[in-house]
Specification:
It is built from five helices and five strands; from the N terminus they run βαβαβαβααβ. By secondary structure, it is an alpha/beta fold. Helix 3 crosses helix 5. The mean pLDDT is 87.
Length: 147
Amino acid sequence: MYKRILVATDGSALSDKAVRNAIGLAKMAGAELIALKVVVPVPVSYWEGSTRLDMQESANAEKRHLDAGRSIVEAVKTAGEAEGVTVTPLTFSGDLIAQTIIACAEKYECELIVMASHGRRGINRVLLGSETLQVLTHSRIPVLVLR
């Protein structure tokens, strides 16, 4: 069935549902699970008057966000291994979340992408966008969406 499944997570409760389902599916299929967290870079202030300290604070904030992302995928690894599933945790920094998810799925030769949808509708969907919709629209790899 599946040899490798990618699960995209942001650490939210809804995302945890996708993780649990991906672990269960990977266990049933005897597949490896790739746990991915894409961390959006911390914006850097270029306003006049910025000091090196501001830049250092920005770098520290980015490191904290990457560390938090790593802890999210490490928790997926722990949960998966408790179920007998091999999990590879990945954390990437980038503005283009959907493209990063697709690129990772392709690079690691995944046959399925599992992710959650927050189910936003109307103007919120337009304003906030939907990474899930972008993955669904642009991925050649099948996508399982959970709500």
